[in-house]
Design brief:
By secondary structure, the chain is of the alpha/beta class. Helix content is 45%, strand content 19%. It has helices spanning 17-20, 23-34, 71-90, 101-121, 138-144, 162-165, 171-178, 189-202, 231-241, 245-254, 272-285, 307-327, 344-353, 368-375, 408-419, 423-439, 442-455; strands at 4-10, 38-46, 55-59, 62-69, 127-131, 150-154, 183-186, 206-207, 213-215, 218-224, 258-265, 293-300, 335-338, 356-359, 384-388, 401-403. The strands form 2 sheets. It has a 10-stranded mixed beta sheet with strand order 3-4-2-1-5-6-7-10-9-8, sandwiched between helices. The protein is globular and about 70 Å long. The two termini are 24 Å apart. The protein binds adenosine-5'-diphosphate-glucose. Adenosine-5'-diphosphate-glucose (ADQ) is lined by residues 22-23, 156-157, 227, 263-265, 298, 300, 341-342, 347, 364-369, 372.
Length: 461
């Protein structure tokens, strides 16, 4: 069996239990184990002089290879081009985009460094799976080094159409690089459509009858592979956590009120400010909800070196404070805001206690919180999911109440609808969503991507 090489910005090392608990790590680890594979990425450390070779650690048949950045590289590559240029643009927010040639150059250099490291470790029949927007130049850099291996790329975040994507001065290099892959995968049909539109209308390429895309002198496969979760893990975590102290404390503290929960990385794409506005709107338009609901928003600190994220944190605190100031009573506040990371098990317990999951990103590749919330519910008395139409998860979670997160009144009405929903309807909606989660769980995601990568007819170079 060919060996798998996974390349992603971060590597979840065996000792780093929190990084290994969710999403990508669980999704790729079993494939890595099966093929005695190799996982390469940044160590999470900045140093004065990065070592020329990656640091190798072997554990349970998998080789972990990590590289370091200098502080300046981290700033220009990660905070700069990745998270102040690509992230906002790919989340349809050109107004937030910051661009500099220096940061773009750093991105190109770091991608080239990743390619050097892969080239030093690769064997001829390995297949290579590259993850996400931090490494879009890697496929081209690998081909420049003469690698003829099968290369797959998966974009975890959305892709806008060419009208927006071409704002990037480096759009041709980035898309030209993806064209060097054998397979490019996306979360949703609309991301794939954007990619095809780029090929057709910007690169002068074509989509052939067999679905392959031709552009920049290459022919490649593409597809939709919505990422799932480990449903059984979430179900059992939530069942166990329900009787833990933390979930009990939360349940006791809401004292019979209805609990609404939001859990996100603190990011402007997640729509946290707009969500707080919707809670304010609900309390203003329907004062009978006063003292009857509690909204808990958990926001994990994220990208704290980027000024916009620090600013957002202050804005959220201010907005939550204003809604609380306006509506709180002497023995009740409507919003509890917690700016921290919780262990997965505790989160699962909190999801289970909440009558309504409020997942309203302005734009999101998938959004795993929506899926985790559903999987954590009690089958005989499940909560309701209110979900943004702009989350990739909305394509599968048809049993959710789907909302436009920009419409505060609509979100407030959806919360009201969800809180009043009869048990039978809640159960029916939840069962539909669970069936979808089980059909396409995390293992299905990585297996189907890798099956397609390894078996797809080799596109001509
Ligand atoms: P993210 O933008 O990080 O992922 P998401 O899919 O919601 O967004 O995943 C977040 C994960 O972090 C979830 O597993 C959640 O449980 C966890 N988490 C969030 N807040 C937490 C907290 N306070 N404490 C502990 N854990 C917390 C990117 C894309 C998404 C895409 C994923 C996977 O932006 O659209 O779904 O990759 O492809």
């Amino acid at each position: 069996m060919s060996r798998l090489i996974v390349v992603s910005n971060r590597v979840a090392l065996p000792r780093d239990r929190s990084a290994r608990a969710g999403g990508l790590a669980v999704g790729v680890l079993s494939a890595l184990r099966r093929t005695k594979g190799l996982w390469l990425g940044w160590s999470g450390e900045t140093v004065e002089t990065p070592a020329p070779q990656p640091r190798l650690v072997r554990s349970a048949g998998i080789t972990y290879a990590t590289i370091d950045f200098t502080a300046l590289e981290f700033d220009a590559f990660y905070n700069g081009y990745c998270n102040s240029t690509l992230w906002p643009l790919l989340h349809f927010r050109p107004g937030l985009l910051e661009h500099s040639r220096a940061n773009q150059d750093a991105y190109m250099r770091i991608n080239a460094r990743f390619a050097d490291q892969v080239a030093s470790l690769v064997k001829p029949d390995d297949f290579i799976w590259v993850h996400d927007y931090q490494l879009m130049m890697l496929p081209a850099e690998l081909r420049l080094r003469g690698l003829r291996n099968r290369i797959g790329f998966f974009l975890h975040i959305p892709l806008p159409g060419p009208e927006l994507f071409c704002i990037l001065p480096a759009h041709r290099q980035l898309m030209g690089s993806l064209a060097q892959c054998d397979l490019v995968g996306f979360q949703t049909e609309s991301d794939l459509r954007a990619f095809r539109d780029y090929a057709l209308y910007e690169a002068g390429g074509q989509v052939r009858p067999d679905g392959t895309i031709e552009m920049f002198g290459r022919r490649l496969h593409s597809g939709v592979f919505p990422i799932g979760i480990d449903v059984e893990e979430l179900e059992s975590l939530a069942g166990e956590a329900e009787t833990d102290d933390e979930a009990r404390r939360l349940a006791d503290s809401i004292a019979g009120r209805q609990l609404i929960i939001g859990v996100d990385r603190l990011d402007y794409s997640k729509g946290i400010l707009e969500r707080i506005n919707a809670i304010g709107e609900l309390l203003s338009s329907r004062p009978d909800y006063r003292n009857r609901i509690t909204f808990v928003q958990i926001a994990a600190p994220s990208r704290i070196d980027v000024a916009r994220y620090r600013h957002l944190r202050r804005e959220i605190e201010g907005r939550a404070g204003r809604v609380n100031g306006k509506h709180a009573e002497i023995d009740w506040v409507p919003i509890r805001y917690l700016n921290r990371v919780f262990p997965r098990r505790q989160l699962a317990g909190f999801y289970r206690v909440a009558r309504l999951g409020l997942v309203t990103p302005l734009r999101d590749g998938m959004n795993l919180v929506a899926k985790e919330y559903v999987a954590a519910q009690r089958p005989e008395d499940p909560g309701v999911l209110v979900l943004s139409r702009f989350a990739g998860a909305a394509r599968e979670m048809k049993g959710a109440i789907i909302v436009n997160p920009f419409d505060t009144v609509e979100v407030a009405e959806a919360i009201d609808h969800g809180l009043r929903m009869p048990l039978k309807e809640r159960q029916e909606r939840w069962q539909r969503m669970m069936a979808a989660l089980r059909r396409n769980d995390l293992a299905t995601w990585s297996d189907s991507f890798l099956d397609t990568l390894t078996t797809a007819e080799r596109a001509a170079a």
